[in-house]
Amino acid sequence: MSETLPAFLRDTLPSLDQGLFGRLRRDSGPEWTAYVRHPFVRRLGAGILDLADFKRFLVQDYLYLLQYARASAMAIVKADALEDMRSAASTVSGLVLTELGLHLGYCREWGLDEAELEATPATLETLAYGGFIMDRAHAGDLLDLTVALAACLAGYAEVGLTLRHDPATVRDGNPYWSWIETYSGEVYTGLAEAGIKRLNALSERRGGEARYPMLLRDFRTTVRLEAGFWSGAMREG
């Protein structure tokens, strides 16, 4: 599959088409495409996404990221090797100190403070997605959980990089360009690449090949939930 990836993805996320993740991404087929090329994403790149839709997304994404951080923290409990514990702790630190911090700062630019974010009820899409990853955090092992978290981590990096290199993306005057910069920047793409490598290595140790049908089922569920997350922000409007 490596030859089908654009050069900018191969250069920045070389693990995207390798190992277990590469197989999951490939076998998700149209569902993965519907996620990373969603109309929400395309409108964001063109700078024509409705402002109210984007604000709804920001609020719900914050609420989801809190669940994502909690699920990621469970990976420390699930780990049975110090290496895995360190990797999980690094992910949590990256989320709490990096992405959530960036997210809060970005929300403030749009007039949304932390109290308002936390007071907003979660939508059905947010509840469904957060509930699914927390279920995998409690009921599955470390590999199950890491697979459930992978679509979000890697997908946003692919979305950011694709928009950054898409000739159709508007830069000047695009109110969402800073969002694209965040998810295509070195900090976030570095977290994503490390996460993909961690998943692929974990698969080798945890019997990913033998468990592949169930892992694919869970991965495809999260991919559909991701696409539904974009759709929910637009449908509410």
C-alpha end-to-end distance: 38 Å
* Sheet/helix structural class: mainly alpha
Total number of helical segments?
A: 12
Query: What's the CATH architecture?
Result: Up-down Bundle
CATH superfamily caption: Heme oxygenase-like
CATH class: Mainly Alpha
- Provide the number of structural domains: 1
| Unreliable spans | none
Share of residues in helices: over 70%
- CA gyration radius, whole angstroms: 17 Å
SSE pattern, N- to C-terminal? HHHHHHHHHHHH
Summarize the biggest pleated sheet.
none
Which descriptor suits the 3D outline? globular
Strand elements, count: 0
InterPro entries: Haem_Oase-like_multi-hlx, Thiaminase-2/PQQC, Thiamine_Salvage_TenA
Organism: Endosaccharibacter trunci
Pfam families: TENA_THI-4
Protein name: TenA family protein
Please provide a written account of the structure.
With 237 residues, the protein is mainly α. The protein has a single domain, classed as Up-down Bundle (Heme Oxygenase, Chain A). It is built from 12 helices and no strands. The protein has helices at residues 7-12, 19-28, 30-36, 39-46, 51-78, 82-109, 114-119, 124-139, 142-165, 177-184, 186-205, 212-235. Helix 5 (51-78) packs antiparallel against helix 12 and helix 8 packs antiparallel against helix 12 (212-235).
Could you write a compact summary of the structure shown?
This is TenA family protein. InterPro entries: Haem_Oase-like_multi-hlx (IPR016084), Thiaminase-2/PQQC (IPR004305), Thiamine_Salvage_TenA (IPR050967). By secondary structure, the chain is mainly alpha-helical.
